[in-house]
Amino acid sequence: MPDTTLAGLQPLSRSDMAARLARDIPEGWYVNLGIGMPTAVADHVRLDREVIFHSENGVLGMGPAPPKDQIDPWLINAGKQHVTLRAGGSFCHHADSFAMIRGGHLDLCVLGAFQVADNGDIANWATSENDTAPAVGGAMDLAAGAKRLWVMMEHTTKDGTPKLVRRCSYPLTAVGAVKRVYTNLAVLDVTERGFVVVDMAAGVTLEALQARTDAQLHLPA
Amino acid sequence: MIDKLVRSMAEAMDGIKDGSTVLVGGFGAVGQPNALIDGLIEQGATDLTVAANNAGVGRTGMARLMDLGRVRKIICSFPRSSDPVVFESLYRAGRIELEIVPQGTLAERMRAAGAGIPLFFTATGAGTKMAMGKETREIDGRTYVAETALHGDVALVEAWEADRWGNLTFRKSGRNFNPIMAMAARLTIVQSQHIRELGEIDPDHVHTPGIFVRRVLHVPYGDPSGF
Predict the structure, then answer these.
(1) ipTM for the complex shown
(2) CB–CB of B147/B122 below 8 Å?
(3) Which of A15, A134, A154, B62 is least enclosed by beta carbons within 10 angstroms?
């Protein structure tokens, strides 16, 4: 059994992962951040860099959470949290909002995931074929529709089971959609060769990373 | 003279039949037509199919409609919520049918219904269990899934402003599903925070033209709260 504990490694915190991902978003992109871990990415994009955040419920140009005494009860995001609107922001109805997604107008969507396969398949909405009351929300639209899909997730489950796999065992959200994965241990591109390691957290070796990954890892050509 | 304003909830709900498909606007608590949902509870129609983004929260509103056994089937994208107690117990007991639809497909199916498009193809859900039993087609090397229009017999909508012709505006993220549901149903019933004189809403600012609206009830309840 290879050692799959995190001993000796310096995994990134969630905030560090969000900051790492945020560095790769160029100014001018239209971006949707999925509910959960990806939402934190916005905290690491300075407002003077004009990255336009989209929320499925018809908000384009979403700004940070308001101070408690300045909450606007009419302005929420897809996670049903109160948000703000930047100058230049706009509202639209759900069909237009999802036209932005499904019509390929978003430069980037960042989602969390249960599993990502080395062919870019993503499973992030149900952990069983017989899920009681599965809830998909907008994940399938985002995964299939955005120009780029990046995933942000822990490298393994809490019990050490790899989440970067040869083939997803959970129900798929989309086929061949993921372009890049940001984990607490590494950044990996999904290429025709499979997962290519872009960089690794401090203390992580390729061998240690492979021991925690079901799919074959590759180094850049 | 056209006057779509109704004076009472009973008038607003008149004629809703058992077995109807009811489209319910709102995303979270924002733009959710709570008064009309309570009106439907009072009105008594049963064996309903309800299409909405969520499947109710807590024990009031849509959750209460379900709790009373009046909903045969729910069509939604996200049946989970902070407190989905009613839906989950009915679903586990096999007393409510669930059709899960990706949120964008849900919106587009209603938009298509409103626009007279019976069937369309989308990449959303291709290669997933959402595509099971549905026609698929390769177009320019990509696989698409056929989805059908979703018509409502009734739509319950919450607006910010309305006039007697049924022209509507919505407020901020309260717009969400409301305009497309208004288009997709034969009987669109609106609760509006404000009633304006004809011509008072700038024609350039009308979000839903009155042709899509049948009845308007003035419900100035104030700000949404809760989720």
Answers:
(1) 0.96
(2) yes
(3) A15
